[in-house]
Specification:
It is built from six helices and nine strands. The protein is an alpha/beta fold. The strands form two sheets. A five-stranded mixed sheet has the order 1-2-3-5-7, covered by helices on one side.
């Protein structure tokens, strides 16, 4: 039995579901097993009487994208990152955007790569002063995935989004607020 890397509960009184990414030692970076657990939790939340969903993190990082240790880099049998994005990350973002309840990302630490984009895919995100958002894809020769090329410009404008995507610089919570980052990202809320 694997350890729970996704925890969730639904408050019986408020009917608010809280989903906690629980791999703090790995900055909550995702594995295939974590995707499976998250999918099961979302299915239970969708079938429940939950009226809202809060996605948060355990530890010092909200979500640091894919756990590269979960991939195979052996020549001849290397993991295909494109397949991983198509199979797991893009469907996750689309599923969150399609959920009929408000979703709030409560970002307590670093939200890197797909983690930053997942936060932006939520209806609202609330960031602690310690939070930061990083599009570090460029550091490994990639473009932002998981909706990043669409979501980031809608939050901070094309020029700033391009700057972050091409440099991989960190965007602090305070700077994001100063830039007027939109808190409502989907369905016009």
């Amino acid at each position: 039995m694997s350890e729970k890397s996704v925890l969730f509960r639904i408050d019986g009184e408020t009917r608010v579901a809280t989903l906690t990414l629980n791999r703090p030692d790995k900055l909550n970076s995702f594995t295939r097993e974590m995707h499976r657990q998250l999918g099961e939790a979302l299915t239970e939340i969708e079938a429940s009487s939950a009226r809202a969903l809060v996605i948060t993190d355990a530890g010092r990082g909200f979500f640091a994208g894919q756990d590269l240790a979960d991939l195979d880099f052996t020549p001849g049998s290397m993991s295909d990152l494109g397949e991983l994005i198509d199979e797991y990350f893009n469907p996750l973002v689309r599923r969150l955007e399609a959920m009929p309840l408000p979703i709030i990302a409560a970002v307590n630490g670093t939200a890197a790569d797909a983690g930053a984009n997942l936060a932006m895919a939520c209806d609202f995100f609330i960031a602690a002063r310690s939070a930061s958002f990083i599009q570090a894809f460029v550091k490994i020769g990639l473009l932002p995935d998981s909706g990043g090329t669409w979501l980031l410009p809608r939050h901070i404008g094309e020029a700033r989004a391009l700057g972050l995507a091409l440099t991989g610089d960190k965007l602090s919570a305070e700077k994001a607020e100063a830039w007027g980052i939109r808190m409502a990202s989907r369905r016009g809320r």
